[in-house]
Structures are given as structure tokens and as C-alpha cells.
């Protein structure tokens, strides 16, 4: 049995992935792609380009819902959003064209490096610096394994 041309098990798994990405997006203010893209590539065998395009399509309603929720609590700077959207729309267009033109392995490596960079930047500072460094090393090793040494 299929739903929208996909096996039922895959529909259920993708709904769960969407829920996780949506919750992460609303909770942490991150784009759901940081969760969806690696899972689509590793668990569902999507190409990097297919995973990125799918994640972007999912983010449209996800971002709208999250933004509306934050806006209802008066936690959106509409002036900053308006200014950023100009660059974001242009950047998204050319970024997507570049992603489609790059070889799959180059794109996967760039995505893995982005994840590592974000992970290192987000590590706690101060008294737990050693744990932050250890976490960064572990995350780096895992991402290299998943995305580069495949």
C-alpha cells in the first residue's frame, strides 16, 4: 500500500522526521534542514541535492508556522526580517543553482563542514571548555564518517 506514491512505512518515518525538524526549528530557531538533510541522505538514501531540495520545500510551511507563533508573542523584528529577506531570496536562488552544479561528494563535504562549524561554535565556553572540545572532536569524527568516508 502506498500514500502519495510512497510506502506507508516511509510516510510514517518521514512524518516523524518532519515533526522532529519542526520541533527543533521552533524550539531552537534552526532551519529544519540541519536535521532533515543528514537523515534523508543516510537513512533514506536520498542524494544530497534531493535531500536539500526536499528539506527546503518542507521549510516553507515550517518557517511560516514558527514565525507566526513568535510574532504572536511579539518576538519578531519585522524590519530586520524585511532587510534580510532581500539578500536571502537572491542568495537562495544562486545557492541552489550552485548546489545543483556541484558534484555530489563536494556538496556533501561542504554540508558536513557546515555542521562541524556550527557544532564547534555552539560548544559551551568557560569551565567546561574541555568537554566542549571533546564534543567537537566527537561530532567532527562522526560527521566525517557519515558524509566524507562513505
Plain-language structure description:
This protein has helices spanning 8-28, 33-42, 48-72, 78-101, 104-122, 129-148, and strands at residues 2-3, 6-7. By secondary structure, the chain is an all-alpha fold. The chain has a domain at 1-77. Helix 1 packs antiparallel against helix 2 (33-42) and helix 1 (8-28) packs across helix 3. The longest helix is centred in the middle third of the chain and has 25 residues, at 48-72. The radius of gyration is 17 Å and the shape is globular.
Quick structural gist:
The chain contains six helices and two strands, in the order E-E-H-H-H-H-H-H. By secondary structure, the chain is mainly α.
For the biggest sheet, the summary is:
2 strands, antiparallel
List low-confidence stretches. Answer: none
C-alpha Rg, in Å?
Answer: 17 Å
Overall shape = globular
Summing up helix and strand content along with how strands pair, one would put the structural category as mainly alpha
- Can you give the mean pLDDT? 84
How big a fraction of the residues is strand?
A: under 5%
Helix share, percent = over 70%
Amino acid at each position: 500500500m502506498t500514500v502519495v506514491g510512497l510506502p506507508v512505512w516511509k510516510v510514517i518515518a518521514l512524518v516523524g522526521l518532519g515533526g522532529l525538524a519542526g520541533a527543533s526549528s521552533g524550539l531552537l530557531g534552526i532551519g529544519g534542514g540541519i536535521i532533515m538533510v543528514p537523515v534523508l541522505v543516510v537513512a533514506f538514501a536520498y542524494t544530497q541535492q534531493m535531500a536539500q531540495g526536499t528539506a527546503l520545500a518542507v521549510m516553507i510551511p515550517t518557517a511560516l508556522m514558527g514565525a507566526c507563533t513568535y510574532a504572536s508573542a511579539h518576538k519578531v523584528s519585522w524590519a530586520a526580517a524585511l532587510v534580510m529577506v532581500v539578500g536571502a531570496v537572491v542568495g537562495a536562488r544562486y545557492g541552489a543553482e550552485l548546489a545543483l552544479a556541484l558534484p555530489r561528494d563536494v556538496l556533501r563535504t561542504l554540508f558536513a563542514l557546515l555542521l562541524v562549524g556550527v557544532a564547534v561554535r555552539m560548544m559551551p565556553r568557560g569551565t567546561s571548555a574541555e568537554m566542549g572540545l571533546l564534543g567537537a572532536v566527537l561530532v567532527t569524527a562522526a560527521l566525517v564518517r557519515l558524509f566524507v568516508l562513505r
